[in-house]
Each structure stands twice: as C-alpha cells, then as structure tokens.
Amino acid sequence: MLTQLQKRGGSEEPFCKFCGSEVESLDHILCTCPFACKVWKLSLLRLDFSNLSPSYWQKRWFSLTEIWKDGADSSACISLVAFICWSLWKSRNDLMFNNFLWEPFDVSKWAKLNFHDFREVRNQDALKSIPPPSLPPRPSRWVAPGFGSLKLNFDASFCSISKCCGGGVLLRNHLGHPIRVASFFLQNVCSPTVAEGLVLRESLTLLNMWGYSKVLVVGDCKSVMALHPSEEALSVILDDIPSLLFSCVGAFLVWTPRSGNVIAHLLSKKALAAKCCNFEWSIWPLWLLNACTSDYIMLSV
Ligand SMILES: [Zn+2]
Q1: Is 162 part of any domain?
Q2: Residues with CB under 5 A from ligand 1 (ion)
Q3: Most CB within 10 Å of its CB: which of 23, 82, 209, 221?
Q4: Ligand 1: centre distance to CA 141 (Å)
Q5: Residues 22-76: tens digit of each pLDDT
Q6: Rounded-to-integer distance, Cα 254 and Cα 206, Å
Q7: Same domain, 208 and 112
Q8: In which domain, by residue range, is 23 found?
Q9: Which of 107, 124, 141 is the C-terminal boundary of a domain?
Q10: What is the rounded distance in angstroms from the CA atom of residue 210 to the CA atom of residue 204?
Q11: What is the pTM of this model?
Q12: Distance of CA 84 to the CA centre of its chain
C-alpha cells in the first residue's frame, strides 16, 4: 500500500490513484473509493458501500461474509466477493504501474467472468466424485471470454525420450476467432511440468510483445497455473511469471480442464512432431479455423 511504501522512504503521495482525495488503504481501494463503489453496484451482488465510513478491511471482510453465511449459495457469494476484490486490486495496479484506467463496468465484468470460470472448474471437480453416468460424457468445450476480452490458451507436449517439448499458443477473441497463433520447440526439458512452465513463460513474453490488454491466460497444468513449484527445476521458471504477468495489462492466469484446452494441445503436439523452431503463424490452416469454429458452435448450443 502507498501509505506503507511511504513509511519505507518512498516518494509517492499516499493518495488513492482513482479518486485522488483519500489516503490509499485496502478498505478504501476495495470498498469506499467512489470507483470501487461503482464496481460493487454494477456487480451481481449490487452492494452499496457509498454511505459507509472507512473501516479496517479485515472487519469489512468479516461483515461481508456474515451477510451470506447462512444462505443457500453462501460460498458462491463469498467467492464472487473475492473475485471482485481481486479485480479491483488488479485495476489499481494497472492504473498505478501501467497508467491504464479500467472502466468500473469492465472491472465488474472481468470479476464475473473469472468467477464463472472458477465455478465451472469447481463443478467439474465435484462431478468427479460422482459415479460415471450411463450417458456419454459432456462434449469438451472452450469457453469464450467476454466482449472486449481475449483468451490465450497454451499447452505443452513433452517427449520423455528426446527430452524435448512442443508448445502451442492460441489467442482468441470473444467470438472464438484466432487472433495470434504461435508454436515453440524447446530442447533439454526435464519433465512435462517444466515444459508447461516454459511454454507459459514464452506465452507471456509473446503477450508482452503483442501488447494486448484484458487477456485470460489459460493452461491445464494445475501446479503451473497456481504458480506452485512442484519440483525444483520449475521454481526458477515460475519466479519469472509474476513480473511478466504484471507487465501485461489486465492479464490473469486461469486453470482449465484439458477439455477446454484442446486446440492449444493440438498445436503443441504438432510442434513437437515437426520439431519446428519457435515461430508465429502468419497463415492459419483450415483445420485450425475449423477447430475454432466448431469450438465456438459448441458453446452456443
Ligand atoms: Zn479513491
């Protein structure tokens, strides 16, 4: 927080970057700032903090969770609160470090989008504990990002004999259309998880170079997406991710089951098989366009 930074000798004014009139505290950024108030009012929760006096954030969080603790869908409401707070914090960082001002509507929408992705993953996890039904499983699908947002899917394919990996990166818009496509071929890779980490790092480097904003960065390896170094070689790679992510405006990491990452997986398989060098595709083959179209059709059924 700015107030804390200033105590450590920083030269910044301890005022909120959104309104410029109040000292920046966690409670102010997340609740009482007029910017935050607009975001909460626009959210599904329709909360109104505009008449509340400043408080300690911990106290506020407690009172928020109290509101829903006995409700039928209390965990969903509390998760949504957490996603709104996360998006507010992210928009504060984008304003402070990237000079990028989000609209309150976009912050609220972004929180909702991440919340829905999170719920979908949770529901799929819950289904795993139920015995398989006699019906065939649901078709795999890719979920389109909201209007004005982009989704970058990446995946790695690893060969344990050659210790090489192929990487696929696919950036798509809210209609499912491909915007950018890239392939990687990396050598001397020690494990499939390290391969996933390396391709994530390459993907974020590309995203920085391309300069898009509001991008969900989606992968299917849980430990990599949680930035959890499950093995030593991975920790060095994952150390680079926060700063890369931070320099992309409005980029978030989201985990997806493999069924939501099918085309990126195909791209990585092809890159491994072709032993191609790292390159960005200038022409998109028909199979890729067809795959993107059928993915999107599946979503709208
Ligand atoms: Zn403010």
Answers
A1: yes
A2: 16, 18-19, 22, 33
A3: 221
A4: 40
A5: 999 989 999 999 999 999 988 878 888 777 777 788 888 887 777 777 766 777 8
A6: 17
A7: no
A8: 12-124
A9: 124
A10: 10
A11: 0.60
A12: 13
